[in-house]
């Protein structure tokens, strides 16, 4: 009895409830239009519509916001009760499906500080974090992870490839109060590390000592010419010589053909350019290494991860070919909970989605075959 109580107590201590700052699964029909606001900064933003797309795992669960007009900017945002991630883990997670086989367009979200003017949100609105896939032709297929730090947007220094197929994928960014981070795609880690190493938040810790100079007599040559070695006197021989076996043709006419000259051949005695032997340099000191000193410009910051407030999430992007569906957005402080939510959303519908797509492709293929057959028959009959 006591033991059971103790286990319960321990479980309660270890298991703080996850904080969910924002969760959006678009599962209540048109109600999302009350929660999301379109910017009026421009007059011709593309329209989002609620849709599960052409193929899906579950018609209801897979409904999300789909871009519906080609070659448009999109600008929608939703706000929530403001929070700071001070001393907390922050998980940003959502699903993206480029079912249109996207050529060029964004699939990322932006997290804004509280106080965002939603009606005026646009490409230059100040955000805290931008995260998610971006595709533009074959060269650009990357996951952005951008942090705003002291007014500058800093992109991750590592290249994280995004998914470029037509299926739904789960993107997760975890930022921890120990200044480490992790990026996951489909609930598997694709990148991780710490903020200071992988973004240019701070100037480098060490710099080359500006006072230090390589001494003039520092010898970096590991080998030198052997001073004892001399070119042999009989070394110099011409590279080409007249062919000793060549004979003037009998019908050679000096008057008509000019003076006869034998063809030249490679001289077998030619030795090439003479080079002295190499020996170890007794004065060799190795490569000179510029000594480093602490960078006076560097000041550590233990709170790179931290933002005073998060208040809104936005879809602020450009798409050439529309059709992308955003769904299952989640902001939480709990990595495990996010993983579970990913499993319960993307995880339970992904296989059925793929199956439906494959069936559609198969039917399409059959239809095409029949049409081709018909066309061939009509031709035969003519
Ligand atoms: C999510 O699903 C994967 C694969 O089935 C499983 O290994 C993992 O434990 C699940 N995570 C959670 C938090 O339930």
Automatic annotation (TrEMBL):
Its main location: other. Keywords: Acetylation, Calcium, Chaperone, Cytoplasm, Cytoplasmic vesicle, Disulfide bond, Endoplasmic reticulum, Extracellular matrix, Lectin, Metal-binding, Repeat, Sarcoplasmic reticulum, Secreted, Signal, Zinc. Gene3D superfamilies: 2.60.120.200, Calreticulin/calnexin, P domain. Coiled coil: none annotated. An alpha-D-glucoside binds at residues 108, 110, 127, 134, 316. GO terms for molecular function: calcium ion binding; carbohydrate binding; unfolded protein binding. One of its GO terms (biological process) is protein folding. GO terms for cellular component: cell surface; cortical granule; cytosol; endoplasmic reticulum membrane; sarcoplasmic reticulum lumen. Residues 1-16 form the signal peptide. It is found in: Cell surface; Cytoplasm, Cytosol; Cytoplasmic vesicle, Secretory vesicle, Cortical granule; Endoplasmic reticulum lumen. The keyword Ion transport does not apply. Disulfide bonds join 104-136. InterPro entries: Calret/calnex, Calret/calnex_CS, Calreticulin, Calreticulin/calnexin_P_dom_sf, ConA-like_dom_sf. Residues 251-260 have a biased composition (Acidic residues). It comes from the Eukaryota. This is Calreticulin.
């Amino acid at each position: 009895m006591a033991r059971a109580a103790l286990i319960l107590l321990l479980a309660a201590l270890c298991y703080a409830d996850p904080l969910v700052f924002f969760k959006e699964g678009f599962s209540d029909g048109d109600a999302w239009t009350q929660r999301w606001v379109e910017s009026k900064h421009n007059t011709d933003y593309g329209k989002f519509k609620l849709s599960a797309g052409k193929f899906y795992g579950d018609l209801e669960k897979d409904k999300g916001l789909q871009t519906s007009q080609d070659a448009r900017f999109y600008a929608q945002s939703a706000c929530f009760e403001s929070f700071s991630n001070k001393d907390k883990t922050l998980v940003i997670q959502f699903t993206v499906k480029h079912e249109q086989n996207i050529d060029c367009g964004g699939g990322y979200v932006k997290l804004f500080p509280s106080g965002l003017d939603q009606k005026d949100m646009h490409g230059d609105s100040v955000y805290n974090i931008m995260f998610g896939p971006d595709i533009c032709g074959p060269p650009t297929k990357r996951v952005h992870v951008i942090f705003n730090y002291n007014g500058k947007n800093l992109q991750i220094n590592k290249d994280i490839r995004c998914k470029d197929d037509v299926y739904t994928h789960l993107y997760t960014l975890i930022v921890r109060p120990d200044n480490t981070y992790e990026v996951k795609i489909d609930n598997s880690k694709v990148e991780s590390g710490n903020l200071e190493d992988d973004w240019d938040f701070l100037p480098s810790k060490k710099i080359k000592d500006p006072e230090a100079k390589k001494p003039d007599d520092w010898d970096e040559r590991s080998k030198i010419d052997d001073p004892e070695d001399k070119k042999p006197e009989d070394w110099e021989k011409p590279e080409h010589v007249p062919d000793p076996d060549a004979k003037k043709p009998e019908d050679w006419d000096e008057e008509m053909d000019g003076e006869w000259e034998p063809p030249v051949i490679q001289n077998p005695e030619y030795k090439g350019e003479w080079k002295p032997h190499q020996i170890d340099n007794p004065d060799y000191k190795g490569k000179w290494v510029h000594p480093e000193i602490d960078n006076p410009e560097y000041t550590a910051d233990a709170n790179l991860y931290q933002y005073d407030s998060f208040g809104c999430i936005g879809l602020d992007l450009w798409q050439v070919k529309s059709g992308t569906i955003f769904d299952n957005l989640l902001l939480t402080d709990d990595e495990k909970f996010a993983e579970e939510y990913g499993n319960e959303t993307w995880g339970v519908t992904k296989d059925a989605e793929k199956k439906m797509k494959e069936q559609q492709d198969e039917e399409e293929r059959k239809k095409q075959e029949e049409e081709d057959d018909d066309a061939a028959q009509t031709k035969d009959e003519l």
